[in-house]
Amino acid sequence: MNKKEIRQTPALAPGAVVDQLFAEIKNEAGAESIAIVGHQPDLGHLISRIVQSDDCVLSIQLKKGGILLHQRE
What we know:
globular, mainly alpha
């Protein structure tokens, strides 16, 4: 995948299963960074799952145009 490639996935559709998206991201082993674009409330649930790594107990809400950055060490 080159740096300018944009890919759409049904794993970001409203109500999609988060584990499906995680599997797709894991398949992008050579990617230096990945941007995920979506809408509330699903994007907030996804972020909660990334931060907490289990079912969405944590509630994160993003305002319009909000951005979250997650960096691996």
